[in-house]
Design goal:
The chain is mainly alpha-helical. About 75% of the residues lie in helices and about 0% in strands. The relative contact order is 0.12.
C-alpha cells in the first residue's frame, strides 16, 4: 500500500529576501538624510558654478542665447550669416531637465521606446549637438570637471550608502570622506576610463583618415584597410554603449570594493552582461523610485514655501514678497525702497534654497539607489551578500585581510 504523499506548506515568506529589487526603493528614505542632501547640494553647486562661469566667460549675451540655443546648436548655420551666441552649459542643463522628465514619464507609463529615446537624447544627442555647435573645449573641460565633482560628492554618497547597508546603521561622514579623498583618483578614473579608451580609438581613426586617405595611391591602401577601420569603429560603439548602460554602477563599485577604475568598469560591465534582464529590472525600479520620491519631496517643498509665504505675507504691509517673486521669476521689480528690495532678494534666496535641497535629494537618491542596485547585481552574479564590502585593513578590491607586514 503506497503511502500518502506529505503535504507541503509555507509558514511565511520573507518578501524582502525573495523580491530583493524592492530594496532599491529604500534609497528614497536614506537620501532624505540632511547630511546627504547637503552633500548633493554641494556637488550640484560645483557643477552649476563651473558651468555658469563657463557661460559667463564665453557667451557675450547669455540672456538672448538661451532662447536661440537649440537653433544655434542643432540646425546648420547659413553660410555668410553670423551664428547666434550660445550658452553651452544652459543648453546642457535644459536638456538634462527635459530628458530626465521624459525618463521618469516613460518609466511611470511603462513605455520602453520612450525611455530609450530619452536616454539616447541625453547621452548622445546632447553632446553631439554641442560638438556640432563648435563647443569642443566645453565638452572636454566641463566633462572633466563633471567627472571630478561626481568623483568627490558622488563617491562620498555611494560610500555612505554602502556602509549604511553593511552596518544597518547610519554611516558617519568623516570615514567616508576620508576613504574617498584617499582614493579620489580611482573614482575619477572609473568615470573616465571608458571615454578615454573611446577617445584614443577615435584618434586612431582620425589619423587613419589623415594619413591613408589623402595622399594619391596611398588612399588605395587606406580603402583596402577600411575594414580594419570599421572594426575600430565597432570598438568605439561598444565602449560607448557599455558606458551608457553601466555608468550608474561605476562609482558604487569603487565605493563598495575600493577597486581601481579599470576594475570598476570590468565589474560593472561583467555583471550587466551576466544578468541583463535583472539589471533592466533594477534600472526600472531605480527610476520608479525617483518618480515616487520626487513627488513626495516636491510636495513637501512646495507646501513649505507656499505656507510660509502666505502666512508671513499676511501681515507684511510692503512690497517684500512682490520683490521676492520678481527676483525669483526674473520679472519687473516693483517700485520699492532699497531695504524692501534687498529683503525681497533674501526671501527669494531662502525659497530658492529649498528648491536646491530638492535637487540635492535627487543627487543623493541616484547615488544611493545605484549603490543598492550594484550590490544586488553583485549578489545575483557572485553570491556575495550586500553587507560584505571593503573595510580598512583589507586588500583593495578584495575582502582578504592585508598581510601583517603591509600594515606596519
Amino acid at each position: 500500500m503506497s503511502e500518502r504523499p506529505l503535504d507541503t506548506s509555507i509558514a511565511h515568506v520573507r518578501f524582502d529576501r525573495v523580491f530583493r529589487f524592492g530594496s532599491i526603493l529604500g534609497a528614497i528614505g536614506s537620501a532624505l538624510s540632511p547630511t546627504r542632501i547637503g552633500i548633493g547640494m554641494f556637488t550640484l553647486a560645483l557643477l552649476v558654478g563651473g558651468g555658469r562661469i563657463w557661460d559667463a566667460a564665453t557667451t557675450p549675451e547669455p540672456s538672448s542665447a538661451s532662447a536661440s540655443l537649440m537653433t544655434g546648436l542643432i540646425n546648420a548655420v547659413t553660410p555668410g550669416e553670423d551664428p547666434e551666441p550660445v550658452a553651452p552649459f544652459q543648453f546642457t542643463l535644459d536638456q538634462v531637465q527635459s530628458c530626465g522628465s521624459r525618463l521618469i514619464d516613460a518609466t511611470v507609463g511603462l513605455e520602453p521606446a520612450a525611455f530609450l529615446a530619452a536616454g539616447r537624447d541625453l547621452l548622445w544627442t546632447t553632446p553631439a549637438s554641442l560638438w556640432n555647435g563648435g563647443h569642443h573645449w566645453f565638452i572636454l573641460l566641463f566633462g572633466l570637471w563633471t567627472a571630478a565633482s561626481l568623483a568627490l560628492g558622488g563617491g562620498v554618497l555611494c560610500r555612505l550608502e554602502a556602509v549604511g547597508l553593511a552596518t544597518r546603521d547610519a554611516a558617519s561622514v568623516n570615514p567616508a570622506l576620508g576613504m574617498v579623498a584617499g582614493r579620489w583618483q580611482a573614482f575619477f578614473a572609473a568615470l573616465l576610463m571608458p571615454l578615454v579608451m573611446a577617445a584614443l580609438l577615435a584618434l586612431l581613426l582620425l589619423v587613419f583618415g589623415l594619413v591613408l586617405l589623402n595622399a594619391p595611391v596611398l588612399n588605395l591602401l587606406g580603402a583596402v584597410l577600411y575594414g580594419a577601420a570599421l572594426l575600430v569603429g565597432l570598438g568605439i560603439a561598444l565602449l560607448l554603449l557599455a558606458y551608457a548602460v553601466s555608468c550608474p554602477l561605476l562609482l558604487p563599485a569603487v565605493a563598495a570594493e575600493n577597486c581601481d577604475g579599470p576594475d570598476a568598469m570590468h565589474r560593472a560591465i561583467a555583471y550587466i552582461v551576466a544578468k541583463p534582464l535583472r539589471w533592466m529590472l533594477y534600472l526600472f525600479t531605480l527610476m520608479l523610485g525617483l518618480a515616487l520620491g520626487l513627488l513626495l519631496v516636491l510636495t513637501v517643498a512646495n507646501l513649505t514655501i507656499d505656507i510660509t509665504a502666505a502666512l508671513v505675507d499676511q501681515w507684511t504691509f510692503n512690497e517684500t514678497f512682490a520683490s521676492a517673486q520678481a527676483a525669483t521669476e526674473g520679472g519687473e521689480a516693483p517700485d520699492a525702497s532699497w531695504h524692501v528690495a534687498w529683503a525681497g532678494g533674501l526671501v527669494s534666496f531662502w525659497s530658492g534654497l529649498v528648491q536646491w535641497a530638492v535637487a540635492g535629494w535627487v543627487v543623493a537618491y541616484l547615488m544611493a539607489g545605484s549603490t543598492r542596485a550594484y550590490l544586488l547585481l553583485r549578489l545575483a552574479c557572485d553570491g556575495q551578500d550586500e553587507r560584505e564590502i571593503w573595510w580598512p585593513g583589507l586588500i583593495r578590491g578584495t575582502l582578504a585581510p592585508e598581510p601583517p607586514n603591509s600594515q606596519e
